[in-house]
Specification:
Blueprint (H helix, E strand, L loop, with lengths): L6 H25 L19 E4 L2 E5 L5 E5 L2 E5 L5 E5 L2 E5 L5 E5 L2 E5 L6 E5 L2 E6 L3 E6 L2
Antiparallel strand pairs: 1-2, 2-3, 3-4, 4-5, 5-6, 6-7, 7-8, 8-9, 9-10, 10-11
Protein name: Collagen triple helix repeat protein
Organism: Mycolicibacterium gilvum (strain PYR-GCK) (Mycobacterium gilvum (strain PYR-GCK))
Keywords: Signal
Length: 142
């Protein structure tokens, strides 16, 4: 029987070895690229750091946009003209301008669906709530 070899079977290992040798030889060139240019904003001003972090916590803000901070005492965040919230050892609160708002803490909770809308509160002394154009109710504890 005649021994048959294909072109790929004969040259495949040589082709692979050549590609590997080229990759090894050019690898140092990959790391020799110059550093990227410094950062500039569209208006030509240099970019600035948008946040900081350290042992006391972290903070960050996008100019004219969202901002937030976190540390041992809690965390807070806000979007200008939009939702805002905070949380810490004393409780948490959050609000959407013109919309729902609420808070919770060791003394109880309260919230409303929107200014002038349905609202309610609950705490150690009882619960209360109001529905506009319907009425309010309070249920004391005990």
């Amino acid at each position: 029987m005649r021994y048959k070899t294909s072109v790929l079977g004969t040259f495949g290992p040589m082709l692979f070895a050549g590609a590997a040798a080229t990759a090894i030889a050019t690898a140092p060139l990959t790391f020799a690229q110059p550093a990227p240019p410094p950062c500039f904003n569209a208006d030509g001003t240099p970019c600035t750091a948008l946040g900081t972090a350290g042992p006391g916590g972290a903070a960050g803000a996008i100019p004219g946009g969202p901002a937030g901070e976190a540390g041992p005492g809690g965390a807070s965040g806000a979007i200008p003209g939009g939702p805002a919230g905070e949380a810490g050892p004393g409780g948490a609160s959050g609000a959407i301008p013109g919309g729902p708002a609420g808070e919770a803490g060791p003394g109880g909770v309260s919230g409303s669906t929107n200014p002038g809308g349905v609202s309610g509160a609950a705490g150690p002394d009882g619960v209360s709530g109001c529905i506009p154009n319907v009425g309010c109710a309070t249920i004391p504890v005990g």
